[in-house]
């Protein structure tokens, strides 16, 4: 049976990758982003999930939502994170409830544990969060909303704490938190196909030899990563946060800097 799935944030890095890789005929995709499509044959809605009319049109008739949209880095004000990542995510969950959409796959971040000392590894999926930034706090709020909508309304919700998604590791930190493109596809495919997951938190990392996160919940939903950053060890070089005594010992890297969330200038 073919399922229609809404992907928010479809023009972002992860979204562009998944649009090219999740091409099974079992899925018919609808995309939502604030920028327009670069391919005219897609079911694409240009708009913001902060707009109630846009959300209604996007969510109507879908069988699942992959929620990638939002502010995905540092550098924004708290009010912006609150509006986009928290209020916007709540509106999407509420629209899913209202339209009877049974599943939401929510893109969270490893930064929700960003102030965790690496010497305390391994980190389990349900360890108490230690956010490193306003961005991370907003992602924790999204996870909490997913828990609420599961417990209160029965939605299946999988929160993916995504690591460093890129073509290959570039610095020492990404040797343990890398998510390869192929494993990213496997992660989201498993999240969409696993039957009746309930509420779950899953670390979105590859099978890196030096990883500090558990893969137990990923394997419970059928995610078996195959790639290992270790094969690139000879090609990586130190980033600035690899030399900083605090940033190198905490999961969040540069996000743990004391002034990371200072208001942007201008």
Describe this structure in words.
The protein has 266 residues and is of the alpha/beta class. The chain has one domain (3-256): Rossmann fold (3-Layer(aba) Sandwich). 32% of the residues lie in helices and 17% in strands. It is built from 8 helices and 9 strands.
Structure summarized in a few sentences:
By secondary structure, the chain is of the alpha/beta class. 32% of the residues lie in helices and 17% in strands. The chain has one domain (3-256): Rossmann fold, CATH 3.40.50.720.
Write the topology of this structure:
Layout: E1 3-8, H1 13-21, E2 27-33, E3 43-46, H2 52-59, E4 64-67, H3 78-99, E5 103-109, H4 134-153, E6 156-162, E7 164-165, H5 174-177, E8 178-179, H6 181-193, E9 199-204, H7 216-220, H8 240-243
Parallel strand pairs: 1-2, 1-4, 2-3, 4-5, 5-6, 6-9, 7-8
Helix pairs in contact: 1-6, 2-3, 3-4
The span between the termini is: 52 Å
Annotated CATH homologous superfamily: NAD(P)-binding Rossmann-like Domain
Q: How much helix is in the residues?
A: 25-40%
Q: What is the mean predicted local confidence, pLDDT?
A: 96
Strand order of the largest sheet: 3-2-1-4-5-6-9
Please identify the structural class as seen in this structure. Answer: alpha/beta
Give me the count of strands.
9
CATH class: Alpha Beta
- Global outline: globular
């Amino acid at each position: 049976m073919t399922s229609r799935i809404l992907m928010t944030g479809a023009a972002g890095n992860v979204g562009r990758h998944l649009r090219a890789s999740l091409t099974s005929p079992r899925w018919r995709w609808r995309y939502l982003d604030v920028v327009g499509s670069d391919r005219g044959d897609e079911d694409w809605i240009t708009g913001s999930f902060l707009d109630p009319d846009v959300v209604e049109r996007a969510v109507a008739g879908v069988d699942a939502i992959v929620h990638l949209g939002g502010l995905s880095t540092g550098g924004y004000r708290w009010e912006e994170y609150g509006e986009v990542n928290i209020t916007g995510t709540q509106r999407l969950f509420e629209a899913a409830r209202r339209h009877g959409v049974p599943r939401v796959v929510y893109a969270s971040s490893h930064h929700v544990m960003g102030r965790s000392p690496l010497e305390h590894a391994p980190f389990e999926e349900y360890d108490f969060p230690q956010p490193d930034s306003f961005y991370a706090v907003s992602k924790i709020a999204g996870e909490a909303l997913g828990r609420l909508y599961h417990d209160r309304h029965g939605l299946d919700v999988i929160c993916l704490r995504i690591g460093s998604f890129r073509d290959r590791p570039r610095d020492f930190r990404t040797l343990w938190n890398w998510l390869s493109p192929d494993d990213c596809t496997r992660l989201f495919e498993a999240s969409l196909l696993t039957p009746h997951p309930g509420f779950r938190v899953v670390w979105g990392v590859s099978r890196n030899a030096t990883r500090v996160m558990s893969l137990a919940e990923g394997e419970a939903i059928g995610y078996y990563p195959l790639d290992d950053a270790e094969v690139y060890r000879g090609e990586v070089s130190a980033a600035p946060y690899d030399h900083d005594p605090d940033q190198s010992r905490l999961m969040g890297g540069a996000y743990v800097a004391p002034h990371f969330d200072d208001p942007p200038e201008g």
